[in-house]
Structure formats: structure tokens, C-alpha cells
Amino acid sequence: MNANDDVLNRLKSAEGHLRGVIRMVEDDVYCIDVMRQIQAVQAALNKISANILENHLNSCVITAIRGENPSDRERVLREIADVYEMATKT
Amino acid sequence: MNANDDVLNRLKSAEGHLRGVIRMVEDDVYCIDVMRQIQAVQAALNKISANILENHLNSCVITAIRGENPSDRERVLREIADVYEMATKT
Amino acid sequence: MNANDDVLNRLKSAEGHLRGVIRMVEDDVYCIDVMRQIQAVQAALNKISANILENHLNSCVITAIRGENPSDRERVLREIADVYEMATKT
Amino acid sequence: MNANDDVLNRLKSAEGHLRGVIRMVEDDVYCIDVMRQIQAVQAALNKISANILENHLNSCVITAIRGENPSDRERVLREIADVYEMATKT
Questions:
Q1: What predicted TM-score, i.e. pTM, was given to this entire model?
Q2: Which of B72, C45, C51, C81 is deepest in the core (most CB within 10 A)?
Q3: Nearest C-alpha of chain B: how many angstroms from A62?
Q4: CA C77, C82, C83 angle in degrees (round to 5)?
């Protein structure tokens, strides 16, 4: 199983979890329990994002930084700083 | 449309968004773009959680606090403090 | 020691921790170690916010909700929904 | 002014802000207002962390990745993935 398959499986599991949350709301489950399950989905998505970033660092980022194109290098570093900043806001 | 329907619609939209993210990974879309879409799903889930909390405060919480059962009152307040603390961790 | 003193002590400890981070930057400590200490300060601040909310729920919020002023009641609930939403963004 | 000075100034400003929060608690300011100021300090710390990461990417990370030591390279990438994962939890 490659890194991408692992990310896919985790995303599908998070999506199944979210469908479960939708059923909870349809079944009028207690609000706080719904909120806790949404927080669990978000924790799973955080973990998936961290995995994607790790794969990205070990492929595209290494290639760009070891490559000869300074604007590629700048771009990949800029993108990492950006997703980090976004991550602290969500 | 009642408050519950609004939450349901937003949850279904977030789930559709997450299915889109799965397709992006299947299509080998650039990692950073996938991460940004995951962050967008999380921002939507944050908004939904806040809506659920607001509905909850205006129904169960008011009922429990105005009611005569001190342990119910304590429980609803304890739960709010708990989901708040969890929210700061995800 | 009342609840307020506990919050004060924790805030002073977080502030001391932050002064330590400033010294780390002055001493050119490795960036990642600085970032980890900033994250530790933020985890402490999250915990303090949750404590303040808990105290608030058990005092002002109970008083307002059990009181006879509907606009006070609405205001305290509105404020809780707001700080929750903000918390999911920081 | 170099990048480090900018980080230092922002950290000192965040620390002054936090001292202000301590005074608010000493003066028994309304809980929700205290919580909002704590959230503002955290937003400032998020921004500072993102700046430190950006400086780090443009110095140590480039050097390590363009260098000839594979274990250095692995370490810097591992550290970035780690601080990202931590950031999504605080």
C-alpha cells in the first residue's frame, strides 16, 4: 500500500464518519454527542492533512529545493508557510 | 426551515465537499491543493459545530438551567465547558 | 484559593513561559524548539480559557438564565456561542 | 531590521498583551472580555509561529535539503511535519 492509498483510506473513513454524523442529526441525537463526533472527524482530518504534508515534503519539496529553479523553491516553501498559517486558524 | 434542517443541509454540503477531496486524491491533484480543500471542510465543520451549540444553548441549556434539577444544570454546563476545551484542541 | 486566583496563577505562569520564549529567540535557539515552546504556551492559554468559561458558566450564566431579563439571557448565550466560534479559529 | 528582530518585537508585544490580560483578571473584568483578549494573544502567537517557520524554511531547511547529509534532510522534514501536526492540535 503506498502513501496515497493510506490517505485515501483515511479520507473514506472520515467521510463514512461524517455520514454517520448526518444520520445522528436526522435521528435527533443529543446535540453535544453530535458535536463530539464532529470534533472526532476534525481530529481525523488533521491527522490526514499532516500525512499529506509529510508525503509532500518527502517528494515535491525535496525535488524543488534540490532542483535548479529558484522560483520553484520559493513557491514550495511559501506554500508550506501558508498551509501552516491556515492550519492555526481552523 | 428549522434550525435542524439548516444544520443537516450544511453537513450534507460538507460531506459532498469531502467526497470532492477524495476524488482529488484519486486524480493525484497537487498535495497543497488537497490540504487547502481539507482545511475548507474543517472551517465548514467549525461553523456547523458553532450553530449546533447555539441551538443547544437556546433549547436544552435554558430548560435545564431554569429547571429544578441541580444535577441536570451541572451536567449541561459541564458539557459546554468540555466541548469548548475539545474545540481548542482540534 | 478561589477560582480567580487559580486563573491568575496560571496566567502568570504562561506569561513567565512566554518571557522564556523571548529569551530563547534572543539567544538564537533553534527555530523548531522556539515553535514548540510557543505551542506549549498556547496549550496553557487554551486550558486557562476553558477554566474561565467554566467559572463564567457557573456564575454569570446561571444567574442570567434563571433571572427575569430575557435580553440578559440572550446576551450570555450569544456570547458563549461567539467565544466558541472564535476558539475554533485560533 | 532582520527577521529575528521582527519576531522578537512581536513576541514582546504579545507578552505585553498577556500582562494586560493578567491585570484584567486582577480588576475582575467580565469573563467573556478576558477570554476574547486571550484569543487575541493566541492569534498573535499563531502569526509569530508562522513567521518563525517561514524564516526557518528559508534558512536551515534549504541548507539541510541542499546539503549532502541525508539524515539532516530527514530530520528537518520530520520536524516540519511534527510542528504542523502539533499546530492542528492547539
A1: 0.92
A2: C45
A3: 14
A4: 105
